[in-house]
């Protein structure tokens, strides 16, 4: 078993990263291959090759800004990327390097970025207009291709945000909607599926049981 020496620069940028990786077995974590998705923290092939040659490692990231397709990245797409990277670097050079806080509000993202000795706000992969995680869309939780029997409370689009649907529904978890694109039904959105996507499973189930009672 090989051991990787942790260093403070493990989460650094790509400038000089390949040279550092060749000089010592560094961990580059919270990052994915830049060839798969060109995010600021993701690493180019030259860095991946240097890590593999020196005995370093890459820790994959589940952070939406580092994923191809953002919050809509599929498990299959992520696993395919991992498999391709394993072919390039070797399975003993890979790990999961994510401390992602799932189902947390944007205030958590802001808090994580505030721990720096600077007066200038660091938005990471975001910006001043969009400092948090990308919004979740209807297409990420709808039942694709379903027609359903109804009754339906109305129609929504696959690119509508879940927050906008909640506002329209008034928070009624018993409703369902036709998902329409260019006048054609492409799926069904059940509000209970939306709740499961936004709320931890146990809390969502407790809320549905309470509504049934």
Describe the structure.
This protein has seven helices and seven strands. It is α/β, with parallel strands linked by helices and 213 residues long. It folds into three domains: 89 residues, no CATH class; 28 residues, no CATH class; 75 residues, CBS domain Like. The chain has a four-stranded mixed β-sheet with strand order 4-7-6-5. Strands 1-2-3 form a three-stranded parallel β-sheet, with helices on one face. The radius of gyration is 21 Å and the shape is elongated.
Instruction: Assess the beta-strand content as a share of residues.
Output: 5-15%
Q: Average pLDDT, to the nearest integer?
A: 79
Shape: elongated
Rounded to the nearest angstrom, the distance between the terminal CA atoms is: 55 Å
Order of helices and strands: HEHEHEHEEHEEHH
Keywords:
three-stranded parallel sheet; 213 residues; disordered C terminus; 7 strands; 7 helices; CBS domain Like; elongated; 13% strand; alpha/beta; 3 domains; four-stranded mixed sheet
Task: Offer a concise description of the structure.
It is built from 7 helices and 7 strands, in the order H-E-H-E-H-E-H-E-E-H-E-E-H-H. With 213 residues, it is α/β, with parallel strands linked by helices.
């Amino acid at each position: 078993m090989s051991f990787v020496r942790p260093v403070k620069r493990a989460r650094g940028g790509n400038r000089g990263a390949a040279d550092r990786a060749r000089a010592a077995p560094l961990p580059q974590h919270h990052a994915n291959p830049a060839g798969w998705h060109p995010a600021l923290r993701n690493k180019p092939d030259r860095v991946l090759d240097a890590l593999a040659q020196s005995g370093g490692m890459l820790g994959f990231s589940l952070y939406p800004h580092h994923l191809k397709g953002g919050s809509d990245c599929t498990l299959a797409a992520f696993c395919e990327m991992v498999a391709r990277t394993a072919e390039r670097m070797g399975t003993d050079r890979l790990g999961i390097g994510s401390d992602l806080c799932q189902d947390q509000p944007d205030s958590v993202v802001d808090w994580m970025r505030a721990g720096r000795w600077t007066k200038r706000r660091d938005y990471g992969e975001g910006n001043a207009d969009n400092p948090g995680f990308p919004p979740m869309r209807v297409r990420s939780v709808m039942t694709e291709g379903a027609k359903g029997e109804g009754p339906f409370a109305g129609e929504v689009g696959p690119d509508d945000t879940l927050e906008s649907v909640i506002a329209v529904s008034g928070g009624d978890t018993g409703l369902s909607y036709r998902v329409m694109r260019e006048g054609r039904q492409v799926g069904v959105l059940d509000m209970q599926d939306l709740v499961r996507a936004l709320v931890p499973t146990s809390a969502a189930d407790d809320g549905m049981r309470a509504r049934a009672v």
